[in-house]
Amino acid sequence: MDAGQLTQILVWPIVSLIIVLFFLIYFRDSVKKILEDLEKARGKISPSGLEFDFERRKIEAAAALGAASVSKEGEATAERKALDEERPREIANVINQVKPKILRRLADASILWVDDNPSNNLNEQRSLGAFGIHFTISTSTADALEKIRVNKYDVIISDMGRPDDKQAGYKLLEEKQKLGDTAPFIIYAGSNLPEHKAEARRRGAFGSTNNPQELFQLVLSAIQGE
Fold first, then answer.
1. Which CATH number fits domain 103-224: 2.60.40.1180, 1.10.260.40, 3.40.50.2300, 3.40.50.1580?
2. Which of 62, 180, 184, 209 could form a disulfide with 222 if both were Cys (CB 3.0 to 4.6 A apart)?
């Protein structure tokens, strides 16, 4: 094990703890509800501890989703402040959509995430990864298409614009369709306008959003075939 690998092993638990603590402080109300559910589960924990593990995963996912939401927020307008007040409830509702019976399906799922700045999506990946979903990262259309040719993915997520192509997301969607790939395609970009959502669906995308909570819901629906 080299120094870089050792650093990653030591740093990630600390980063995870910071994210969880941040969420516990910033979103007290939503976490309180999740913790209340956890307390109820304690009395039903089986010898395997599966119920406890599931509640732990929910808290980790909620923390990461909360951090993703904060990182994506825009200017602190009156409208934004109103949305922020609803965010804890929204996050709790989204996380509670995950039921124990679908954990095995999520753990078997694989997602190809295409973005020329993959570090922008780390919290979103952690929120989904808490339930066992696996990710393959690609930073270009050409690389993504090569991966699609040789691998099968349950979901493909792509940004829209990249330095060499402002509509790279649509180009990737068109090329993957030519390959006969049928994996649900989700555009995760900077716009959430109704006309952009409609255009994405018209072109064959499963959905389009710039909202971390909506992305989480889209991925769950896509994996479950809804």
1. 3.40.50.2300
2. 184
